[in-house]
Amino acid sequence: MISGMYMGEIVRLVLCKLMMQGLLFTRQQSEELFEPQRFYTKYISEIERSLAVSYLHICSGQPTQNSTHSTSGYPIRTWPP
Questions:
Q1: Over the stretch 6-53, which tens digit does the pLDDT of each residue have?
Q2: Are 78 and 62 in a shared domain?
Q3: pTM of the model
Q4: Do 10 and 31 belong to one domain?
Q5: Most buried among 1, 31, 68, 77, by the most CB within 10 A?
């Protein structure tokens, strides 16, 4: 339970480090992200939920002759894997 309180801060620190190394958000950076306690744990859940919806959207095409791939060419999988 307590670890959830700090998960957002841990992710914020990782994001900051990746940004400073030029590996993430190279075109646009948020100064607010560099402020302690500004990335809440709930954001992680929102991002994960958004990615799951995007993943399902990509994989929802009509199957081709090969039933393991959608018309977009992406493999059809269920979420979570």
A1: 899 999 999 999 999 999 888 887 888 899 998 998 988 888 888 777
A2: yes
A3: 0.60
A4: yes
A5: 77
